[in-house]
Amino acid sequence: MIEFLSRAVLIGVGATALLDLWALLLQRFFKVPAPNWGLVGRWFCHLTKPRVLHDDIALARAYPFERAVGWVGHYAIGIAYAGALLAFSRPDWASAPTLAPALAVGIITVGAGWFLLQPGMGPDLTDHPHLRTAGEGPLWWPLSWQRYLPLKRSGRETPHDLGSQDHQPG
């Protein structure tokens, strides 16, 4: 168990640090804005309420130390993903890694950011106006977990709301 945990921490921290290095390079050479770990920390803090969905996390109540919470959460999730990789791959994977399990976990992690974190923090990939189909709502709506939950953000209509018999504009 100690070996499993130490490998998960090493792989998770290493992979997350590489991701952060990539973000730094994108910021420096391509002027891509750096991730705001303070807002991510604010989202984590609001999970204790429990509040998952926000119209705009920047307008939500601020918490002390939210930037630190965001950074710790960022690395904790990296460690958890590494633990999942080790748990669902063959026992000797860390000694002789192969691409397929790492790629599968990588795809899942991207999906988690797109379909959990971004929708939770406000406008998201599934709600971008350029991704809408002709009058049917977001193009990727069937892939969004929000579609299957009876949750509604204040002031926003979703295709789920618009299809409801009980929907009252307003």
Task: Please supply descriptive tags for the structure shown above.
2 strands; globular; 170 residues; mainly alpha; two-stranded antiparallel ribbon; 5 helices; disordered C terminus
Quick structural gist:
With 170 residues, this protein is mainly alpha-helical. Helices cover 52% and strands 2% of the residues. Helix 1 (2-30) crosses helix 3, helix 2 packs across helix 3 and helix 3 (66-88) packs antiparallel against helix 4 (99-121).
What does this structure look like?
With 170 residues, the chain is mainly alpha-helical. It has one domain. 52% of the residues lie in helices and 2% in strands. The chain has five helices and two strands, in the order H-H-H-H-E-E-H. A two-stranded antiparallel ribbon has the order 1-2. The longest helix has 29 residues, at 2-30. Mean pLDDT is 78; it is low at 130-142 and 144-170.
